């Protein structure tokens, strides 16, 4: 599959529903037997909101399918690329056929890329599902963070920040996944190297609903209690501001240590691929 084709996602392959339909476009939609559609083996979403599915089912019962699903041909049937929520709703309503775009997708690699990119772009995925989808594109499709960012239409730092979520312990990932905390909390927790302190602060997030600013304050206090020097804790504002700018630019944690005759900038990376990404930024 060419980068140019993937770079625009399925939007390049499927016309916008809001546009006026031409005769050629109408003929590209087929009404297929729902029982001949196999599930998507590369579905990045692990959980489906039951209330959202119920709302969609009611909407389809009243107005029908507005957006066709997308599938590819396999053997004597089809395999779903995008539209699992719509397909589930139609099955629940005992509707025998569903409108679908049938795409020519010859390889599993191409199927994986299309499926992940389409879901990332269109579906309301939780942060951990998005991070895992990005990671699949890196590992299973052998792409770089730069390429992934281009294909999903995001900044490379955005992709890197999502991938860093996978460094969190499993219980904290689940907490983010199920909405007990937000991305701001998670990004603040990632900077805490002491796992015991990290877990302790996470429990306060869940129990007491503390803010991201509170997490950052507790993290600093924890470092102080663990032996951080007063000079490190009371870092000048301009250095804190510079660290924040560098973190946003690099998409990873950055620390500045200042001395009488200069200082040191420490930039964290978590894989060879991320090191390569940072080198590209700096060059």
Task: Itemize the secondary structure elements and their pairings.
Layout: H1 3-7, H2 23-27, E1 29-33, E2 37-38, H3 50-63, E3 69-74, E4 77-82, H4 84-92, E5 97-103, H5 108-122, H6 127-139, H7 145-152, H8 156-164, H9 170-177, H10 183-190, H11 195-208, H12 212-225, H13 230-233, H14 237-250, E6 254-259, E7 262-267, H15 272-282
Parallel strand pairs: 2-4, 3-5
Antiparallel strand pairs: 1-5, 3-4, 6-7
Helix pairs in contact: 3-4, 5-6, 6-8, 7-8, 10-12, 11-12
Which labels suit this protein?
283 residues, alpha/beta, Conserved hypothetical protein from pyrococcus furiosus pfu- 392566-001, ParB domain, five-stranded mixed β-sheet, two-stranded antiparallel ribbon, elongated
Structure explained in plain terms:
The chain is α/β, with parallel strands linked by helices and 283 residues long. It folds into three domains: 3-123, Conserved hypothetical protein from pyrococcus furiosus pfu- 392566-001, ParB domain (Alpha-Beta Complex); 178-234; 235-273, no CATH class. 53% of the residues lie in helices and 13% in strands. It has 15 helices and seven strands. It has helices at residues 3-7, 23-27, 50-63, 84-92, 108-122, 127-139, 145-152, 156-164, 170-177, 183-190, 195-208, 212-225, 230-233, 237-250, 272-282, and strands at 29-33, 37-38, 69-74, 77-82, 97-103, 254-259, 262-267. A hairpin with a 2-residue loop joins strand 3 and strand 4. Helix 7 packs across helix 8 (156-164). The protein is elongated, with a radius of gyration of 23 Å. Residues 1-27 and 228-233 have low confidence and may be disordered.
């Amino acid at each position: 599959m060419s980068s140019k084709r993937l770079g625009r996602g399925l939007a390049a392959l499927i016309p916008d529903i809001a546009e006026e339909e031409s005769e050629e476009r109408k003929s590209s939609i087929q009404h297929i037997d729902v029982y001949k559609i196999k599930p998507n083996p590369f579905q990045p979403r692990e959980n489906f909101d039951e209330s959202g599915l119920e709302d969609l089912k009611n909407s389809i019962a009243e107005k029908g399918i507005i957006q066709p699903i997308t599938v590819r041909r396999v053997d004597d049937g089809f395999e779903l690329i995008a539209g699992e929520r719509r397909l589930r709703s139609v099955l629940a309503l005992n509707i025998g056929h569903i409108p679908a775009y049938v795409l020519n997708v010859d390889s599993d690699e191409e199927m994986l890329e299309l499926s992940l990119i389409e879901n990332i772009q269109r579906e309301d995925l939780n942060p951990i599902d998005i991070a895992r989808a990005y990671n699949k594109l890196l590992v299973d499709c052998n792409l770089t963070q730069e390429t992934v960012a281009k294909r999903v239409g995001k900044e490379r730092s955005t992709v890197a920040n999502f991938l860093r979520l996978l460094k969190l312990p499993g219980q904290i990932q689940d907490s983010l996944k199920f909405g007990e905390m937000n991305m701001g909390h998670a990004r603040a927790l990632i900077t805490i190297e002491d796992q015991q302190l990290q877990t302790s602060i996470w429990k306060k997030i869940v129990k007491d609903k503390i803010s991201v600013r509170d997490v950052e304050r507790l993290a600093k206090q924890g470092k102080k209690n663990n032996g951080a020097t007063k000079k490190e804790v009371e870092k000048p504002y301009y250095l804190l501001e510079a660290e924040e700018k560098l973190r946003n630019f690099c998409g990873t944690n950055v620390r500045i240590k200042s001395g009488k005759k200069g200082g040191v900038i420490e930039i964290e990376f978590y894989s060879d691929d991320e090191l390569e990404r940072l080198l590209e930024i700096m060059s």
